């Protein structure tokens, strides 16, 4: 189970798009041509599942493209989407993933039986963790302890995801970590750390929280894995596989045998792949920090004008979400999410935790949620939300951070009719208002993936394309590929919607 600096490359999120750079995970079977070479079938399968890679090789003869892929060393190919080595990350090796219950590259789609890959016998799960390399020891983090919370914050701040050019780094606030890692049902033992034995310094982490997913018509209990981070000086210690095995063991002991995670690199094997899009809110700042380029033939003034937003929202009845709205939002969101092949099955308690902002002077606001209340019936007809994840700007003389709003969950009653045009118009209005509200809250950029019904509004609302993918994985579960909202040219496509309905932090 995994997601990390090593595996969850949200680097694009950290700061890249067409207006910037990007963000954006898979292994295989030993072929007849040697342990680290691809078979023709695997190469073709890889291209079909990854629009960005397919597009990069689109000009080549199909046989030639497959030949190039076959001759690449898998350990190199699996570190990034690009044949040229872009987005390469230090990550668990191909050989490690061969030992894990994950789908293979060469699984035939037509013969896939959806469900668990490996049946786990709890009695056979080790009660003790594997030994670490000499000089390091396991640690269970207590995030209710401010000192330990700060240790995790410090580790992530200095050693988590960076973009390819080391210009931006995610800056997870303590409030964000509380929000992300202490959701309903959270378990202390799923907040795993590694410490240096002598100094007791925290040098690595991997964390998880429990939730439920629906994969088409099946509901499964999973752990949502995040924050796999290893101190930069220890990347050669091969800690990533050990961390993944340890949190897997701890989840097994709690009766959870599946996990969901995301990555910007290819691992075995994505169930879906989405693309990031970025909408500048403060274009000039994004330009100054190197996130957004100046398009050829344009001017700064023209770009500022292009990205200008109205000063006030236009949806009647729009207001901040309150605790009294929890049941209505829960009902609306549940009905909306079941439209998608892969979605999160929320409880009422999870809706309260993930969507309702509770004022606390000592904590930064993490999530912004808004509802639309019909003025006559007082029924909640729509809602949308976004969350705050800053990125530090590394060694910039003027700007220290980029405030990024990430589109989170939303739903609208308009989605349940047959009129796609009406849905598109409604989403354009709601999401334009989301941009306006994010701008008012001092965000610099608004990020969204091609999941949910997002392809209906991304390009119209002037989102710029990121140059990488975010891949979705389910550990110990085989499922037929799920649409990621993009076509073979890696562009938003309304005909490719209905797949991903889960948002990973």
TrEMBL record:
Coiled-coil features, chain-numbered ranges: none
Protein name: Glycylpeptide N-tetradecanoyltransferase
Comp. bias intervals (Polar residues): 300-316
Assembly mode: Monomer.
Keywords associated with the record: Acyltransferase, Cytoplasm, Transferase
Basic and acidic residues compositional bias, start-end: 1-11, 20-32
UniProt domain Glycylpeptide N-tetradecanoyltransferase N-terminal: residue ranges: 120-274
Lineage: Eukaryota, Fungi, Dikarya, Ascomycota, Pezizomycotina
First-tier enzyme category under EC: transferase
EC number(s) from the headed UniProt entry: 2.3.1.97
């Amino acid at each position: 189970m995994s997601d990390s600096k090593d595996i969850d490359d949200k680097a694009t999120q950290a700061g890249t798009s067409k207006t910037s750079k990007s963000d954006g995970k898979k292994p295989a079977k030993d072929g007849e041509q040697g342990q680290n070479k691809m078979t023709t079938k695997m190469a073709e399968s890889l291209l079909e599942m990854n629009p960005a890679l397919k597009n990069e090789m689109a000009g080549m003869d199909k046989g030639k493209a497959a030949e190039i892929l076959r001759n690449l060393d898998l350990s190199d190919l699996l570190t990034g989407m690009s044949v040229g080595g872009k987005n390469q990350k230090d990550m668990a090796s191909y050989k490690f993933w061969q030992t894990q219950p994950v789908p293979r590259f060469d699984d035939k789609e037509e013969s896939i039986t959806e469900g668990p890959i490996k049946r786990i016998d709890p009695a056979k799960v080790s009660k003790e963790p594997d030994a670490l390399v000499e000089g390091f020891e396991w640690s269970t983090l207590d995030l209710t302890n401010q000192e330990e919370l700060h240790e995790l914050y410090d580790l992530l701040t200095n050693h988590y995801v960076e973009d390819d050019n080391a210009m931006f780094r995610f800056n997870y606030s303590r409030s964000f970590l509380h929000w992300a890692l202490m959701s309903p049902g959270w378990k202390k033992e799923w907040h795993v750390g590694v410490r240096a034995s002598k100094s007791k310094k925290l040098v690595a982490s991997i964390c998880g929280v429990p939730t439920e997913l629906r994969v088409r018509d099946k509901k499964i209990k999973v752990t949502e894995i995040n924050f796999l981070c290893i101190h930069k000086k220890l990347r050669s210690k091969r800690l990533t596989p050990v961390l993944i095995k340890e949190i897997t063991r701890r989840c097994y002991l709690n009766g959870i045998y599946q996990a969901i995670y995301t990555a910007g690199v290819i691992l075995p094997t994505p169930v879906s792949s989405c693309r990031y899009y970025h909408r500048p809110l403060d274009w000039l700042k994004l330009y100054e920090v190197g996130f957004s380029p100046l398009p050829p033939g344009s001017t700064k003034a023209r770009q500022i004008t292009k990205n200008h937003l109205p000063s006030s929202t236009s949806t009647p009845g729009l207001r901040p979400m309150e605790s009294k709205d929890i049941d209505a939002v829960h009902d609306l969101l549940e009905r909306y999410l079941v439209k998608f092949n892969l979605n999160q099955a929320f409880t009422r308690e999870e809706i309260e935790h993930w969507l309702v902002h509770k004022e606390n002077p000592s904590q930064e606001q993490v999530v912004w949620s808004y509802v639309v209340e019909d003025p006559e019936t007082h029924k909640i007809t729509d809602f949308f939300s976004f969350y705050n994840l800053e990125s530090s700007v590394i060694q910039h003389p003027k700007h220290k951070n980029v405030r990024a709003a990430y589109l989170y969950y939303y739903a609208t009653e308009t989605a349940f009719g047959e009129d796609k045009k009406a849905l598109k118009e409604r989403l354009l209005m709601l999401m334009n208002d989301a941009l306006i509200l994010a701008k008012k809250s001092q965000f610099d950029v608004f990020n969204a993936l091609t999941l949910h019904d997002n392809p209906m509004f991304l390009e119209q609302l002037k989102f710029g394309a990121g140059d990488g993918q975010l891949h979705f994985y389910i550990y110990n579960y085989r499922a037929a590929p799920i649409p990621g909202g993009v076509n073979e040219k890696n562009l938003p496509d309304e005909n490719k919607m209905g797949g991903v309905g889960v948002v990973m932090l």
